[in-house]
Amino acid sequence: MRPDYVVKRFGMFLLIVWLAATVNFFLPRLGGQNPARAALAEQAAAGGNIQLGMEEMIAEYDRKFGLDQPLWKQYLTYLGDMSRLDFNYSIATYPQKVIDMIGHALPWTIGLLLTTTIFSWIVGGLLGAFMGWPRSPKFLSYLMPPLLSLNAIPFFLLGLLLIYFVAFRLRLLPLSGGYTPGTFPALAPSFMRDVLSHSILPALSIILVSVGGWALTMRAMMITTQGEDYVTYADAKGLKGRTIFTRYAIRNALLPQTTALALALGQLISGALLVEVVFTYPGIGTLLYRAIRGSDFYVVQGIVFILIVSIGLATFILDLIYPVLDPRITYRRA
């Protein structure tokens, strides 16, 4: 791979992140709403009365968060802060910093969603590959209808069903949360078992829905590869079915699957937002939901920026590993 191509793609990645971050800055401000005023007004309404000195408090918050500055100056400050991953303070939970809040929630999201996404991709891809291969056992064809039925159910709806039947009716697993309330987090076997038991239902709601989608797309790609000349030629040469399946069919069918996986990994936060909300799981999705409800302007802005960078980075890495997955793809000059 040419170094100049890597530099070019990295520059494109930075450009995309800058454009998306710019939209992330200006779009919330088009409505002309003052986030400090909105947050304080909601707190006052929750308390049942209008606090005295509201305007003075709003002015102090505006000064603290730089909202009293001209828009262009706010934008330059914003770009500088984003480059250092400094997302300012949380308005609703001041003086907590946004980066600290994201740092506490991110491991929960990565631990749950990254694991379930990769597991679903592997299991669904293998099932789809075997279901699309004519020499596979016939009983695998009966798995497609239930997989497609589950794939049509939204994550959060299946999560609600699992909560009702497994946690509420059968009482086999905890109803919600990341661990038992009152438990002190620690790297101890008892706490790890507690976390695992709380993560089973959210993980199942994602895996059961996702496996069908991955299996369907992989099955379609396997059927497509069977009509390609290289598969026909390999079969005519008398190669073993296992060799044709692994080295010719599944390897070429993996390319679009890998593209979809990279995009899915970049969209982990947005894809399972409601799953974390339904199970009150202490991840990024729950944090974003509470920030939106509480008009916590900088928390929303920080999470959206993290999402933008993750999608762009996943696409950039995918573009670099394409030649490894498929040697026919090259970035050399003709």
Shape: globular
What structural class do helix, strand and pairing data support? mainly alpha
Strand content: under 5%
**Major sheet summary line:** none
Give me the CATH fold name of the domain at 107-284: MetI-like fold
Average pLDDT over all residues: 78
Rounded to an integer, what's the Rg over CA atoms? 25 Å
CATH architecture descriptor name of the domain at 107-284: Orthogonal Bundle
Head-to-tail CA distance between termini: 13 Å
Q: What is the CATH C level class of the domain at 107-284, in words?
A: Mainly Alpha
Poorly predicted runs of 5 or more residues: none
Number of strands: 0
Number of helical stretches of at least 4 residues: 14
- Strand/helix succession: HHHHHHHHHHHHHH
Helix content: over 70%
Structure, described:
It is a single chain. This protein has about 325 residues and is mostly helical. The chain has a domain at about 105-285: MetI-like fold. It has helices at about 5-30, 35-45, 55-65, 70-85, 100-130, 145-150, 155-170, 190-225, 230-235, 240-265, 270, 275-280, 285-295, 295-325. Helix 1 packs across helix 4. The mean pLDDT is about 80.
